[in-house]
Design a protein that fits this description.
single chain; 269 residues; alpha/beta; TIM Barrel; eight-stranded parallel β-sheet; 11 helices; 45% helix; 12% strand; globular
Length: 269
């Protein structure tokens, strides 16, 4: 029997369905075809997500739309084509100045095979200043319109940086989150949920699954599960993890030490 690869629409529907409060999707972020293949074939992995920071740094350019949209799309295409699992692409601010440009660029991203995307409400990559709420919601709506035109139920993980820049501005964060849900987001990525209470309150107040960025010293994964989070990612930290081990191995080898056991790791394209 000939194997039939899933369509982009099927992968998008699957990706959206994996955002389950209390049974979160865990995504170890990738940045190129090789890391995508390695993570995709790991037992238990159900979907992949890119990290724009890692993709940009691997290409030698800064994060915060240091890549052109063409470069970002090419990187996404290489990652998507390396696996049959759904891939959510960190699409930063949409690489466009207005909603029409966002719609055009997301249409190209969907054509490249992305099952989902992250889109953020910040004005630039250097600060947490946000676009006006209706403008930001309009950009989410533009992404949804592009997906609907292509017949793909894109999983849109809309990010708000409100609490990262203004920790006391809770109501704005919730208002933004629900405005993005109304505009077509399927999940909300909220930076700045630093305590159990904040996570629980966000889960209760937002009308879509909550995605969080986890890191050493943050709430344990099991506790995030119990609190009802729908998605957990690690952003560029998986690149940091890889680079740490590479640097440690280089130091050990340069010092004429033992061969690290990981030098024997077998991998295939």
């Amino acid at each position: 029997m000939t194997h039939s690869a899933p369509t982009t629409a099927e992968k998008a529907a699957l990706l959206a369905s994996l955002h389950v409060p209390g049974d979160p999707l865990i995504v170890t972020n990738v940045w190129d075809a090789m890391t995508a293949r390695i993570v995709a074939r790991t037992p238990g992995v159900r979907a992949l997500a890119t990290a724009s920071h890692s993709v940009a740094y691997a290409l030698g350019v800064p994060d915060g739309e240091g890549m052109t949209v063409d470069v970002a799309l090419d990187a996404a295409r290489r990652i998507v084509s390396s696996t049959e699992l759904p891939v959510s692409v960190d699409f930063e601010r949409g690489y466009a100045a207005d909603p029409g440009g966002v719609r055009d660029n997301v249409a190209r991203l969907v054509e490249a095979g992305a099952a989902g995307l992250n889109i953020e409400d910040s004005l630039d990559g250097a600060t947490s200043d946000r676009r006006p709420i209706q403008e930001a919601a309009g950009r989410v709506a533009a992404a949804r319109a592009a997906a609907e035109a292509a017949g793909v139920p894109l999983a849109i993980n809309a990010r708000t940086d409100t609490l990262a820049g203004s920790p006391d501005n809770w109501q704005e964060a919730i208002d933004r989150a629900n405005a993005y849900v109304d505009a077509g987001a399927t999940s909300i990525f909220m930076l700045g949920l630093g305590t159990e209470q904040r996570v629980a309150d966000a889960v209760a107040a937002v009308r879509a699954p909550i995605a969080v960025f986890a890191h050493p010293g943050y709430l344990p994964l099991q506790r995030l599960t119990e609190l009802g989070v729908g998605r957990v990612s690690f952003g560029p930290q998986s690149l940091g993890l890889t680079l740490h081990h590479l640097a440690a191995a280089a130091e050990q080898l340069t010092a004429r030490g033992d061969y690290p056991a990981e030098l024997g790791y077998r991998y295939e394209l």
